[in-house]
Design a protein that fits this description.
The structure holds 2 protein chains of 2 kinds. By secondary structure, chain A is mostly helical. Chain A is built from 10 helices and 6 strands; from the N terminus they run ααααααααβββαβαββ. In chain A, helix 6 packs across helix 8 and helix 6 packs parallel to helix 10. Chain B is an all-alpha fold. The longest helix of chain B has 20 residues. The N terminus of chain B is likely disordered. Classes of the chains: A mainly alpha, B mainly alpha. Chains A and B meet through helix 1 and helix 2 of A and helix 3, helix 4, helix 6, helix 7 and helix 8 of B.
Chain lengths: 303, 210
């Protein structure tokens, strides 16, 4: 509020600020002001308003603000459900591809069958990251086979040490000083092996040299569903080149993947079993006809 | 409880004059919201000088003040349907004007120059000028121009919140509560800013103050 000066002879800051209140425009100014305002007002009426203003998004958002917590929770739940439901791992699709491509199915298989996978890198003296990616690309075809057989061998990112798995244990590449062996489950079948002889010596030091210590070939083992006794099995030489980002994801999703893959595999096994069963029945019938003989009034049976 | 009393109960500004003003404004606003666009002219005529004065004292530029005043009324007109009467129309309009002004000042921080309105001398201002000119023994018109320039320079040296508080309190004559509502801060903050701003102005204009 405006304070009056108690001492008329003393000038205060409030008195000086009163001078600002006396600064006023002339009456002509207001005539011009009104004309300009009218023009702007008409322009504002004619002007096309954005769609979010026309839809009154702020008002709607304000009304929904009281429900923001339950709506947010429902949205997160729905999104999570959709992601989990719609997620299809790569292995499933590649398995279908392999199954349709007519890969050979062995008539008999051992429960401890071992598939040896080899990885060959380019033979340049300087092994660069580009060559690593090229090698990874060349292994992509084998990787699909690996998924089909339920076994994968992974070359992870360049940030991890090099180690090679063979059989049930991880073997380390000798020139990888910081390599750490990764234990593998005993009840699984590890089907990958990488020989250090496939890697040519590195000429340069520095970044290329780091490659040696940062490549990890990690066999990720998925249970091979070998139908022993039914003379039916699916076995393919398998190598999967997977980025390091997918290592953990695949490990987490391995159970789901096996569960999904097992259904497809089961149907395939049933088909093969039917074929074999019919073949066996034919042989048995033919054999039984040959062993059966009739002579005079006697029926003979040869063993 | 009718709409006008509902507005009054929600208005923080408690003075009877303001309450009456808020009630009459709310009725006009309802007419505009119902489609009577011409009714908005009443609000323009009623508040244009106060809004202009506030913006002018913030910017110290009459052309900018005119443009910003028009923009404030246009924005208020475009958003009139969103006005629910939770504060007085005067407070709502002031808030729009201040926000537009602050945005303009921040945008043109490096490009500011003065353009003054003429000082209309009433009795109080004339006696003040006489008092100051008697002491310094200078020509009256020259002294007024110089004082106006020094005063606006001192105002522009204040930070934006301090300048806003001084403008609203000392020049527009709003109460602490009204300023707190417009600036969306506490009354204590308003008082603190006002005290600090006056100290700064006194140090800048000490040659004119006894």
């Amino acid at each position: 509020m405006i304070t009056e000066n108690p001492d008329p002879k003393k000038v205060t800051i409030e008195d000086i600020l009163r001078l600002k209140r006396a600064e006023r425009p002339s009456p002509e100014f207001w005539g011009r002001f009104e004309r300009d305002l009218r023009a702007k007002q008409l322009a504002a009426i004619v002007e096309k308003r954005p769609w979010w203003v026309a839809m009154r998004v702020p008002q709607i958002a304000r009304r929904l603000s009281r429900f923001q917590v339950p709506l947010g929770a429902a949205a997160v739940l729905a999104l999570s459900f959709a992601v989990v439901r719609e997620y299809r791992p790569l292995a499933i699709s590649t398995f279908g591809d392999i199954a349709q491509s007519g890969q050979p199915v062995k008539s008999s298989v051992d429960s401890t069958e071992t598939t040896v996978a080899s990885v060959t890198l380019p033979s340049d003296n300087a092994v660069t990251e580009r060559s690593v990616s090229a090698a990874a690309t060349s292994l992509d075809t084998n990787a699909r086979v690996a998924h089909a057989a339920g076994t994968s061998l992974r070359v992870t990112s360049l940030d991890e040490p090099v180690s090679v798995g063979s059989g049930g244990l991880m073997a380390m590449i000798p020139w990888a000083p910081q390599a750490v062996p990764i234990p593998v489950e005993q009840d699984s079948v590890v089907l990958g092996e990488l020989s250090s002889a496939h890697f040519l010596p590195v000429a340069d030091s520095g970044r290329e040299h780091d490659f040696q210590g940062r490549v990890e070939i990690e066999p990720v083992v998925m249970p091979v569903r070998a139908a022993v006794g039914e003379n039916v099995a699916i076995a393919h030489p398998a190598v999967a080149v997977v980025s390091s980002r997918e290592v953990r994801r695949n490990r987490i999703l391995s159970n789901l993947r096996v569960a999904d893959a097992s259904e497809i595999e089961r149907s395939r096994v049933v088909q093969v079993r039917d074929v074999l069963a019919s073949a066996l029945d034919d042989d048995r019938l033919y054999d039984s006809v040959r062993r059966l003989g009739m002579g005079g009034d006697r029926l003979t049976l040869k063993f | 409880m009718n709409a006008a009393s509902k507005v009054l109960s929600k208005t923080l500004v408690a003075s009877p004059a303001r309450q009456q003003e808020a009630g009459s404004d709310w009725l006009v606003v309802q007419c505009v919201q119902a489609g009577d666009v011409a009714a908005f002219d009443q609000l323009i005529l009623k508040y244009r000088e106060r809004v202009y004065a506030m913006i002018y004292n913030m910017t110290s530029n009459r052309e900018d003040a005119a443009d910003l005043t028009q923009d404030a009324f246009i924005k208020a007109f475009q958003s009139i349907n969103r006005f629910q009467g939770q504060s007085s129309f005067f407070t709502w309009l002031y808030r729009i004007a201040i926000n537009s002004t602050l945005t303009h000042i921040r945008k043109n921080k490096l490009r500011s120059f003065f353009s003054f309105d003429k000082v209309h001398e009433d009795a109080a201002v004339s006696s003040l000028i006489n008092q100051l000119t008697d002491k310094q023994n200078v020509q009256r018109d020259v002294f007024v121009s110089e004082l106006q320039e020094r005063l606006n320079e001192a105002m522009q040296k204040l930070s934006i919140p301090h300048r806003t508080v001084v403008t609203l309190f000392e020049i527009d004559g709003l109460s602490h509560e009204e300023i707190a509502e417009i600036m969306d801060c506490s009354i204590g903050t308003v008082r603190s800013r006002l005290h600090y701003a006056k100290q700064l102005l006194q140090s800048e204009l000490k040659s004119y103050i006894n």
